[in-house]
Amino acid sequence: MSADETATPAAQLPSDATPRPVPTVEGLAPGTVRDWLNWAESELVSTSDSARADAEVLLARLIGSERSQLRLRHEDAIEAATVLRYASTIERRKLGEPVAYITTRQGFWTLELAVDTAVLIPRPDTETLVEWAISLLAEQAAVGRAMPADPDGRGPPYVLDLGTGSGAIALAIASERPDVSVLATDVSEAALDVARENARLNGIGDVEFGCSSWFEGLSQTPSPGGRGETIALFDLIVSNPPYIAEGDAHLASLRYEPRLALTSGADGLDAIREIVRDAPAHLKADGWLLLEHGYDQGPAVRALLQAAGFLNIESRNDFGGNERCSGGRKP
Ligand SMILES: C[S@@+](CC[C@H](N)C(=O)[O-])C[C@H]1O[C@@H](n2cnc3c(N)ncnc32)[C@H](O)[C@@H]1O
Predict the structure, then answer these.
(1) What is residue 108's three-state secondary structure?
(2) Domain shared by 249 and 195, yes or no
(3) Which of 71, 103, 135 is the last residue of a domain?
């Protein structure tokens, strides 16, 4: 953040340089983009550790600007109706609602995804899993494991994303590898509606979506590629399942997100146990299972993978240096 962005406009400063009261919504004092950003930042600073960024993202969305372009519009006046709407979004943010639920948008990988309270807000750390999946698919292609593409140019390889939520992982993989057939499932129909909408918004037509509790309903879901055949075995299964322990103190700060997407039993590992147990029956030989998990769950997940007979078990770190994903190869 630059000094320019944080400065109260000189015109508002009395001679002793004490900031004047911020523009009031009640009085609808005329204000510029800069004034209202400064006001919003001061409103949010006690409840958000990203107050300035929140203020900018929320205002940019309201006035139909890119956040990066706001600086060029600092001297623009904002009309009263927009001010009122801005004040209302700032109030929601003050109460703890995530910015992405207020703007209904979240960037992930190279995509812009729609989000609502039916889905987890995709996290940057999940891009670790996407990177790993894409590099594995490239390696499989390099060693000639993948069969020739079908006449429509797509898969195998077949990829399954379990618990797709907003579709983040499945759509990121499909955006990088349009030749791959991706099936994305979730137990929540409301989440699947969001994921389908995200496929449409991002112009990605080659992901199939289906409702299933982990592997239970897979036989009823459409096959990836949409050609009507049953795909029994996948080359790659990826999942970012719920992995927070019931009763974990972090849940208080995640209260806007669906509990179904967050918690999984007393130690947070119930979903991962089920996926690791059942994955081998749905993977081809040499197929991989990649799982996101909590920062301290790496050892437990590696032990589960080993007990299930996986080979080449390893973990990858997220951007913060925490073990975030573990995976292994089916023999
Ligand atoms: C942590 S969220 C991940 C969402 C998305 N894949 C992402 O990375 O942003 C977990 C997802 O698993 C789904 N889920 C929970 N229980 C499930 C189950 N039994 N079977 C399938 N999906 C489930 C939730 O609805 C939620 O969308």
Answers:
(1) strand
(2) yes
(3) 103
pLDDT digits (tens, 9 = 90+) for 189-202: 999 999 999 999 99
Is the CB of residue 173 less than 8 Å from the CB of residue 209? no
**Strand 311-317, strand 323-329: pairing:** antiparallel
CB 122 near ligand 1, within 6 Å:
yes
Query: Is residue 63 a contact partner of residue 82, using CB atoms and an 8 Å limit?
Result: yes
Q: Tell me if the pTM is above 0.70.
A: yes
Number of structural domains, the chain? 2
- Whole-number Å distance, alpha carbon 303 to ligand 1 midpoint, is 22
Measured CA to CA, the distance from residue 67 to residue 107 in angstroms comes to: 13
Q: Structure tokens of 96?
A: 């703890």
Q: Is 275 in the pocket of ligand 1 (CB under 6 A)?
A: no
Over the chain (331 residues), the average pLDDT of each successive run of 10 is 30 37 56 92 95 97 92 90 93 96 97 98 98 94 58 72 98 95 97 98 94 87 56 90 96 96 98 98 95 98 98 97 97 96
Cβ contacts of residue 156 below 8 Å, gap of 6+?
146, 147, 149, 180, 181, 235
- Can you tell me which atom of ligand 1 is nearest the CA of 123? 9
Give the pLDDT score at 20: 45
* DSSP character at residue 279: G
Residues 300 and 156 in one domain: yes
